[in-house]
Specification:
The protein is mostly helical and 119 residues long. The chain has 5 helices and 2 strands, in the order H-E-H-E-H-H-H.
């Protein structure tokens, strides 16, 4: 279900999957990414150059969580699920986080305040 390691190789698989979904509709992708180390990998940048006809990448400035909506969602996830909690196994952590994500999907209003700065 989840990759053990998220690195440049698994990131490029994610990008290929994403691109294939949008490519079917002939839609160009404008993609924003943060400063994760695998985003800066030479193979990843080669992939972006080879696919620039379909995808344009923008990099967030270093240390700029205020520009990254995902950071706000992680804050909500920690508050609602993992804060002050202990887990016996990785599966318990995954279950907890999945439950929080399900809650976001069922009740998008619950995260509206976290995302307001990005709208």
């Amino acid at each position: 279900m989840f990759d053990e390691v998220f690195n440049s190789t698994t990131y490029m698989v994610f990008l290929e999957t994403t691109l294939s979904k949008f490519f079917e509709n002939s839609r160009r992708i404008h993609y924003i990414q943060d400063g994760a180390s695998y985003h800066k990998d030479g193979d990843v940048w080669y992939w972006f150059r080879e696919n620039r006809k379909w995808i344009e990448v923008y990099n967030l400035p270093s240390y700029s969580p205020e520009f990254n909506a995902v950071e706000a969602l992680w804050k909500f996830t920690r508050k609602e699920g993992t804060h002050n909690a202990t887990f016996e196994s990785k599966n318990e952590v995954l279950s907890c986080v999945t439950d929080v994500f399900d809650k976001m999907q069922r009740n998008p209003q619950s995260i509206a305040g976290y995302l307001k700065p990005f709208c």
